[in-house]
Amino acid sequence: MTAKTPLADRMRPEKFDEVLGQDHLLGTGRPITRQIEERRLFSMVLFGPPGSGKTTIARLLAQKFEADFVSFSAATSGIVEIKKFMGEAAKRKQLYNRETIIFIDEIHRFNRAQQDAFLPYLEKGTITLIGATTENPSFELNSSLISRIKVYMLYPLSFENIKSILMKTLKSNKGFSDKLKIDDNALDFIANISDGDARVALNALELSGLASKEKCIDLKTAEEVVQRKALRYDKAGEEHYNLISALHKSLRGSDPDAALYWLARMLEAGEDPLYIARRLIRFAVEDIGMADSQALLIAIAAKDAIHFIGRPEGDLALAECVAYLARAPKNNSLYLGYEEAKKDALETHAEPVPLHIRNAPTPLMKKLGYGKGYKYPHDYPQAKVDQEYLPKKLKNKKYLKE
Which strand (E) or helix (H) includes residue 103? Predict the structure, then answer.
C-alpha cells in the first residue's frame, strides 16, 4: 500500500480492537466475537450506514478464519459471474477443505431471483456469504435468504469515534506521521460533517491537508475543501437543546417558515435525523393530539422514510412533516388528560376493576358476580349505553376536557 492509496484505505483497521463504534457486535461475549472464539463462522449480512465498517469486518473475519476472500459489488458484478466462482469454491472445499468467504457489497441491488442463486451453496455450507447493505434487509432481501443467514446491524460512528480516528491518522505512519496539524475547530467541523461516516471524514482530512499551506488545517481551509460552512452546534451541549427548543416552539406557534429553518440548522450541523423524527412524533401527540389525528401518522411516516432512505433524500420527508405539524390545529387536551390519569394511577390506591366489566370465563367467576349487569353497547342505539367504567372512587372523573 503506497502513499497514492486513498487515506481511507490506508487507515482501514488491521485488527478487530481497532474497529470503533460496533461494540454490540465485537465486544466481549458479543455475536461476532463468539463466532471467532468458537471457530464457527456463519453467513451474514451487515446492515448499516456508509463508512461504519462493513467491509473492514468482512476482511478481518477472512483473516481470522484463514479463508480465501473474494469481493464482488452487486452494482457492477453479474450473478452469473458470482455463481461460477461459487462453483469453483465448492470444488476447492471438497478437494482441499479450504474455506471461501464471498463478500457481496450492496447485496440489496440483486433482485429476488438473483438472490436465490446463493441458497444451494449456503445450504451445503460450501461458501460463507457476507453481504453488506445500507438498506433494511427486511425490505430488500428474500425471506428464504434471510432465514439462512445472520443479520447484524451496524451503527453510524459517533462524533467521538470520528475524532479518535482523525487524531490517530494524524499520528500514524500510514497517515501523516505527525507532519500535519489541525486546530480544534477544524477537527470538530470535519467530525460533524462526516455524519458518522469514517470514509467521508478521512477524505475531508486528506483534502484539507493537501490544501493547507502551513501544514496546519484551520477551520477556513476545512470549510473551503468540503464546500460547507461550519454551523455552531454541540450535540451534547446547550446549543443542541436551544435548537430543538426553537424547532418545538416554532411548531407550537404554527410558524412553518421558522420551523423549517430550525430543522435545516439541525440537519446541516450533523444532528441525528432519527432524533428529530422522535421529537416530531412526540410533538404530534402532545401539542396536536386529537385536533388532527393524521399528525401522528405523518410523523411516523417521516420516521420510516428517514430510516429507509437516509440522508440527504430523507430530509424532505422531515421537512414535509414539519410543515404539516406547524400548520395543523393545536390541542394539548390529550397530553394533559393522560398526565392526570397517570397521576391518579400512580398516587391513588390501586382500585379494583368493577365487577360488571370483568370477564367471567369460569363458572366460579360468574358465581362471584364477574360480568353481572354488564350492558353490551351493540345492543343499544348507536352502540352507546350509560354505564360506569371507572372504579367507584374515580366515578365520573373526566380526563379529556374537550
Answer: strand 100-105
